[in-house]
Specification:
Elements: H1 2-36, E1 40-48, E2 54-65, E3 68-70, H2 76-81, H3 84-103, E4 109-112, H4 115-118, H5 123-136, E5 149-154, H6 155-160, H7 162-173, E6 178-184, H8 191-196, E7 201-204, H9 206-210, H10 215-230, E8 234-237, H11 243-252, E9 256-257, H12 268-275
Parallel strand pairs: 2-4, 4-5, 5-6, 6-7, 7-8, 8-9
Antiparallel strand pairs: 1-2, 2-3
Helix pairs in contact: 3-5
The chain binds ligand C2E and magnesium ion (3 copies).
Protein name: PAS domain S-box-containing protein/diguanylate cyclase (GGDEF) domain-containing protein
Domain EAL: 24-277
Organism: Thermodesulfobium acidiphilum
């Protein structure tokens, strides 16, 4: 009867929650182990100019769990919930700078920084010392007079404490560190913020690129590109998968393009091959 059915549903419901909790607890335990074993690695996705020349790279976190390479969607939320994200992003920056000096890239590499890393008290100091340490070691490829690091921040980060982020950008700019706004258009930030933050790049979110056939989306994308141009901010379109999207964005004057149409994220050794081919 109905009463019995209701009871069973509650039973099922509770079992679902239990399974979820157990899954989460397992993930937390595995992440703890992964952090101490330094199982996080960097994949690189190049982005290109309108002639398809590589002009920059984005460093993307991967979890090398045994023979599997896990995507951020499978673990990043849990990592960001704790303090581990700060250690892992610190490790990623070290790896990126080592890879830059080893492979000798001549273009900037973006790293995605979480809110927790951005609000580290010692972030500026740590970045500057990481850069200078490698230069001092005599590695000529790390030249801090060039822009080699590009920090990607999401809108949520500067809504948290606008003045802090504004100062961080101004301060690190003196050390030739670039800043980008990631996933632009997905948050709630006011356009007036854009003129007050001296960022170098704005990344147009995939959700716009996917819907360029829609008239309104197309108009908004066009406006974002025009606004960026007037503020001297370079635009990067994210998630470009088709020639048609590439052509439309080119006609709008978008500066750079990132997406599977050009390159997928790849390991350091794959990148090495591409850069030398
Ligand atoms: P994101 O920063 O917006 O990075 C771009 C994501 O779009 C990457 O996913 C990339 O593989 C994917 N992508 C690029 N081109 C295409 C395309 O043409 N089609 C499709 N479908 N996808 C494309 P990924 O590597 O899975 O990373 C997802 C998100 O995880 C990133 O989005 C970023 O928010 C976060 N993430 C990655 N690494 C880090 C990190 O070191 N720290 C933090 N805090 N977040 C990170
Ligand atoms: Mg990004
Ligand atoms: Mg993005
Ligand atoms: Mg995105």
């Amino acid at each position: 009867d109905a009463k019995q059915k209701g009871k069973n549903q509650i039973g099922f419901f509770r079992k679902d929650i239990e399974e979820d909790v157990i899954k989460r607890l397992n993930l937390i335990t595995e992440l703890e182990r992964a952090v101490s074993n330094k199982e996080f690695i960097v994949y690189y996705q190049p982005y290109v100019d309108r002639d398809k020349n590589i002009v920059g790279l984005e460093a993307l976190m991967r979890w090398k769990k045994g023979d599997n390479i896990l995507l951020p969607s499978e673990f990043i939320e849990e990592l960001e919930a704790g303090q581990y994200i700060v250690d892992v992003e610190d490790l990623i920056i070290d790896n990126v700078l080592d890879d830059i000096s080893e492979l000798g890239f001549s273009f900037p590499v973006s790293v995605n920084l979480s809110i927790k890393s951005l609000f580290r008290k010692d972030l500026s100091q740590s970045l500057i010392s990481k850069l200078t340490r490698r230069k001092v070691k005599g590695n000529i490829n790390i030249d801090i007079s060039h822009n080699i690091l590009n920090i990607e921040i999401i809108e949520r980060s500067f809504l948290e404490n606008f003045e802090y982020i504004r100062n961080l950008i101004e301060n690190l700019k003196k050390f030739n560190i670039f800043f980008s706004i990631d996933d632009f258009g997905t948050g709630y930030s006011s356009l007036s913020y854009l003129s007050k933050l001296k960022v170098n790049f704005l990344k147009i979110d995939t959700s716009f690129v996917k819907n360029l056939n829609d008239k309104d989306t197309k108009n908004v994308t066009n406006a974002i590109i025009a606004l960026s141009k007037s503020l001297n901010i370079k635009t990067i379109a994210e998630g470009v998968e088709t020639v048609e999207q590439f052509e439309i964005l080119k006609s709008m004057g978008c500066d750079y393009y990132q997406g599977f149409l050009f390159y997928r994220p790849m390991s350091k050794s794959e990148l090495h091959k591409i850069l030398n081919s």
